[in-house]
Amino acid sequence: MFNWPISVYYEDTDAGGVVYHSNYLNFFERARTEWLRSLGISQTALLQDDIAFVVRRAELDFRKAARFEQNLMVQTRVIELKKASLVFHQRLIDGDDICYCEGTILVACVALSKMRPHAIPPFIAQEFTQGAS
After folding, report:
1. pLDDT in tens, 40-53
2. What are the DSSP calls for 28-86, one per residue?
3. Where does residue 83 fall: left (phi above 0), alpha (psi -120 to 50 degrees), or beta otherwise?
4. Given CA atoms 81, 125, 33, 95 in this order, what sign does their dihedral have?
5. DSSP annotation of 130
6. Pseudo-torsion of CA 59, 61, 66, 71, nearest 10°?
7. What does pLDDT average to over the chain?
8. pLDDT in tens, 70-113
């Protein structure tokens, strides 16, 4: 599991100071990106090798409204690892483990030039094997 802190900025909210629904996807995306970075995986290098990760499906459950100036945590774990895809379970929580939003995100590995499935590079699959359940 990987944890990434998120601060809710004014730009993340609507006129009422509540996080706009699509921004939960942004929070989750940032956490997945930071997890790759923490593993020493450069998405720039992957792109140069014609490899990209794209979201194929996202299912979110909005549980509680997150608000302006809150400091929260995105918990991310791999729940399924296949040849050319990963399924992540992600939760946005506060310090009391209260869940604001959780989601299941299917991410496909593709050859960017063709937008066709591509096997996840072994060095990446190896890093996530420990997190898959």
Report:
1. 999 999 999 999 99
2. HHHHHHHHHHHTT--HHHHHHTTEEEEEEEEEEEE-S--BTT-EEEEEEEEEEE-SSEE
3. alpha
4. positive
5. T
6. -70
7. 95
8. 999 999 999 999 999 999 999 999 999 999 999 999 999 999 99
96 is catalytic: no
What are the tokens at 89? 């379970």
Both tokens of 16, joined, read 């009422």
Q: Which amino acid is at 51?
A: I
Q: What's the pLDDT score for residue 2?
A: 95
In this structure, are residues 91 and 1 in contact, taking their beta carbons and an 8 Å threshold?
no
Q: What would the two tokens of residue 116 be?
A: 């066709």
Q: What is the CA radius of gyration of the chain?
A: 15
Q: 130 falls in which pLDDT band (50, 70, 90)?
A: low
The SS3 call for residue 115 is coil
Q: How far is CA 19 from CA 59, 74, 99, in A?
A: 17, 14, 14
Question: Comparing C-alpha atoms, which of 47, 32, 29, 44 is closest to residue 111?
Answer: 47
Q: Which of 12, 14, 49, 97 is catalytic?
A: 14
